[in-house]
Structure formats: C-alpha cells, structure tokens
Amino acid sequence: MRAPGPLSGIRVADLSRVLAGPYATMLLADMGAEVVKIEQPGVGDETRSWGPPHAGGEAAYYLALNRGKRSLAIDMKDPETLALTRELCLRSDVVVQNFRPGVADRLGLGAAELRAANPALVYCSVSGFGARREPVDRPGFDAVIQAESGLMAMTGEEPTKVGVAVTDVLAALNAAVGVLGALYRRTATGQGDHVEVSLLDSALSGMVNLAQTAIVSGEDPVRHGNAHPSIVPYQAFHTADGQIMVAAGNDVLFRALCTALDLPGLATDPRYATNPDRVANRASLVPVIQARLSTRDSSHWVDVLMAHGVPVGEIRGVRDALAAAARAGDPATVTVLHPTAGPLDLVRAGFSVTGQSVGLPPPLLGEHSVEVLTELGVPSSRIAALSEAGLIGTQENA
Predict the structure, then answer these.
(1) Is 168 in the active site?
(2) Which end of the chain is less enclosed by CB atoms within 10 A, N or C?
C-alpha cells in the first residue's frame, strides 16, 4: 500500500493557465493534493493549442504541466456557472489564479472576498510584475520578464533568452513553497493567507549572487557566456568530438584537474595558486586547458576527470540527457495511461517525498465536469441543462 502524500485531503481550485500556475498546482498534486483545473469550455488552457508536437491530440506543452488534475470546463461569464465556480473555491483549501491584477476581483473571485467568506482559505495570486507595480495590469510573459529582470543581459555571448521559460518555473516553485508555508501555519492558527508571487520577483531573486554583486559593486556584472564570473576554470570546453562542462570550484579541485590533465606546471604556477589569481589570469590559463582537452573525445575526459574527483559533464541534448539519467539508474520520467495517447512518459518532479505520486494523467478538457459538479451537489438534470446550453464542457460537448 502506498503511503498517502503529504497533501492528501487538501483540495486545490486551480484557476490558473499556461505555465507558472499550472506547474505549481501540478507539484501540489504530486504531493497528494486533489487539484481541480477550471477551464473555459471549448477552449481550455491556452497550452492545449501550443503545438506541435502532440500525443493523442494533446499538445506536449499542456501534457508537461497538468498531470494529477481533474478538469472542470465551466463558463465563468455566466452568473450561474460563475456562482458554482465560487462555491468550488470556497469549499477548497487552496485557490491558485494568474489572472491579470484586478480580474479576479471583478469576477468576485478575489482574495479579499473569498477569504472573508472562508478565512481558512489559502489564496495564491501569480502575476507577471506584481499587483503593486505600475502599470498594475501590465502583462508579463517569460520572455519579457527575462529581458526586464537582467537575466537575458547575463546569459550567452550576446543577451540571450534561456531556452526554457525559467521565470515561470521559478514563479511556480515560489508559489508552491508559499502555499506549503501557508498551509503549515494554518494547522496552528486555523487561518489561511494570501500568497503573492510575480515572475519578475522570482527572476530577480533567482539572480542571487549576480544581483548581490551589482548591489555590492555598484556596477553591472560582466556577461561571461558559458564561463563563470567569479570561478576559474568553471566553463565549457571543446573536446575532439563535442563539449564538456568543467567545474573546478576550489583550489583543491583545480590541482586535481591539473593532475588529471597531466599539466603539473599549472598547479605550481603562482599565477594560478588561488581562485582570485586564476580569475585575474583567466586569459592565459584557459587556452592551456582548452588545448589539452581538444586532444581527446568527451567520454575520455569525463572518465578521467571523474576518476580524479573533478566535477565534469557532457553537454547533452535533451533526449540524451533523459536517456543518461535512466542509464544511471534513476529515470527522470514516469509513465501514465492517458485516455487518448495511451502509455505516456512524463518528466517527474525534481523532488522525492513519501507518498509522492503522479496520480491521474493530464485530463482531457471537461473530462471531470460532471463528477466535480455532482460532488458540489448539482442535480444531474441541472448538469445536463448546463451542458446543453454550452455553459459547461463535458466529454460529450467539450
């Protein structure tokens, strides 16, 4: 028997869409929470249409963010179905939404109104720039946040967007952490909280040492591409057949690297004795290491450097990275049985906790509408009428 997840018995009303909110609620579902994904009939979450590629008619983007949830397709523009949405939120432990600031309030689904009716409710708002920055309704997609936060300025040889929507991912993790903290405090006080997360704040806090460097020095850090501004050698190097990443993060590791590369002169050279020395003299040190690494292929150097305790890794493609994780003995994927795609591999969460489970496969649009509304006490005849009117989506009309 699988142990129950740490959030077993917690219901989450998920009013969010696209990436940050759905990723946060998926992590909560992985820990055992019951998550009801609320979507517009006939349309659903935008990521359902963000393809190709598709599996079983569902976009890969959507599949990546929505396992473990039930889908309620309901029209929140209609007063009756909006009231049902509100009732679901009030009966939940957690509400997560990422409307533009002010929209939830206009719908009667804002934090103040719902928490006045249910003080134990944990309410999480996710936005691009935060509700207190001007202009308050400024939309914030990841690419814009990467530009505005300084992240692009610190990435690549020229200002470069990170390949994944990393500010959404950071916001999702912050949202999940905030919700968990609020739930924990609720066990002692009985009171919920309003957790506010923005992509911009998540990106700025995620700049960590670079942001602090700017504060301390009074200057913008210098972009170093695949190298590190404060540690040498800590960068990508070309080999005879590819590239590897070497991370000699301290003086002991640097000397081990010199031994592994059979370059003993570097270890005794006073120009490279300490990390500050190596940072000051990176221009003369890096070419010597590069010349040596160019003589053999990546797999050779990974084996040699690992044997000497030097952190190193091949620069892999995504498919190769997933395969390598599985070969090492702990696959990064789990398999669910999807109603249209069949057996479907999904990338699991980056943590492991007792009772963790992927639960349900990513739901079809409106797959659980009848089920969820029945649990709210809506008579079957009324559900049928709402479906006929197009105010809810079911598997028959979604």
Answers:
(1) yes
(2) N
